[in-house]
Design a protein that fits this description.
The chain has six helices and four strands. The chain has 160 residues and is an alpha/beta fold. It has a single domain (3-148), classed as Metalloproteases ("zincins"), catalytic domain (Collagenase (Catalytic Domain), 3-Layer(aba) Sandwich), CATH 3.40.390. Helix 4 crosses helix 5 (111-126).
Length: 160
């Protein structure tokens, strides 16, 4: 069983349990069991500071992932099965809630769907996927996973 902790540091009404279920479902679909991850929703100042510090880009972004393992370092799906032993610590996904809502508005998408896209994207990065080097495999897998997850309850209501 995977444990996903959710921390909402914004006023955007995010469905914490729905977020945890979605990320846990992505991990399960990727063959990961007995792992822990965290999702944090932050404001624009915080995501901008993190983006500048870790990526050298002094701008607001939508999602950042901070994997605790180097790509290919963790156990593969077969080794990750079962719940014996300590949990695999995957890392953190940080989402700028306001940026996600802004992007949803621009793209005429439901806010919950935009959040789902960012959460799936961030979770895949925790597992070592890299869309900058994989010739589109991560984007394809992301689309497949979005078909498997329930995203409608991610946003409780449209914020004022």
């Amino acid at each position: 069983m995977n444990l996903v902790e959710v921390f909402n540091r914004t006023r955007v009404p995010v469905g914490d349990e729905a977020v945890a279920r979605l990320v846990a479902r992505v991990l399960e679909a990727e063959g990961v069991d007995n792992a822990e991850a965290a999702v944090e929703f932050v404001g624009e100042r915080r995501i901008r500071a993190l983006n500048a510090e870790h990526r050298g880009k002094d701008e607001v972004t939508d999602v950042l992932s901070f994997p605790l393992e180097e790509a290919g370092e963790g156990p593969g799906p077969a080794a990750a099965g079962g719940s014996a032993g300590p949990p695999r610590l995957l890392g953190d996904v940080v989402v700028c809630a306001r940026q996600a809502l802004r992007q949803a508005r621009i793209d005429s998408l439901p806010p919950a769907l935009e959040l789902a896209v960012l959460l799936v994207h961030g979770a895949l990065h925790l597992l070592g996927h890299d869309h900058e080097t994989d010739a589109g495999r991560m984007a394809l897998r992301q689309a497949e996973l979005l078909e498997l997850v329930d995203w409608e309850a991610l946003v409780a209501a449209t914020p004022r």
